[in-house]
Amino acid sequence: MSHQGVEMRNVVKNLLTGVCFASVMAVSAVAQDIRIPHRQGEVTLTATPQKVLVMDWAAVDTLDAMGVQVSGVPGSNAPTYLKKYEGDDYLKIGSLVEPDVEMIAAADADLMIVGARSRKVQPQLNEILPTVDLSIDNGDFIESVKANITELGAVFGKEDRAAEMVAELDGKVARLREAAEGQGRALTLVASGGKLGVYGPDSRTGWLHNEIGFPAVMDDVDDRSDRGDAASYELILEANPDWMFVVDRDAAIGSEGASPAETLLDNELVHQTTAWKNGNIVYLNPQEAYIVMNGYQAISDLLDQVYDAVSKG
Question: Whole-prediction pTM value?
Fold first, then answer.
């Protein structure tokens, strides 16, 4: 594991043991400050933030489920279930990667939240307004999601709702882990631009291996690219997984003219795999699996989708 990965894992564990929860709600007798630890440091607010800008759909997803109003959101790639945020009632503060600095500066907001795709601009935006980085550790995915829920609940005075959300995720994880036991090995694929790639245990779908318990059919996967580690049909047949979980990147981002993942996998070599023969290919909701990933509603739905698939028999 990289030094950066170790550091992020340690941050997550601190969050989950309550260290960050306590410090977020620490109240000074004089200033009533709210301290918010995050992946790149800490910011301090003088009161609960009222006007919040978010450059990450996962954070929008979680705040939406928590009942927290946001004022600004990304101007692109809104998932269908968060379509209301495309409306004119919400400022469009840039893409998932590039901020609209002028819009953000003029918004006079109290807090900015960035995530995995936008974390590099945290130092720049933090010079304009307090900016927290809620990107997660893919190797400890669901625990990271729960840590962010707990922290956001503390920041916005929604501790009870946050506790409910964490408990719901714990229940769904336990249910799926039990259903997945003994189901065999899994291969997670991403379809993009007419090609297939492999996602491994340190990817956005790593929770299927690390926290649900599906053994990976490949140990050595270079999945630093969002298109995964290049895969051929021969490789898929050689790996011969019992289950295949598929992320259709093109469907998620709306690529025109791209071949659907189902078409790419309808291949005579894939037909020989155990997964194909047993009907054990799950096409994960593309927007939730690729764009939102670590939002509460997204991971909750994905846990349900996989559970329905593995418990069908």
Answer: 0.88
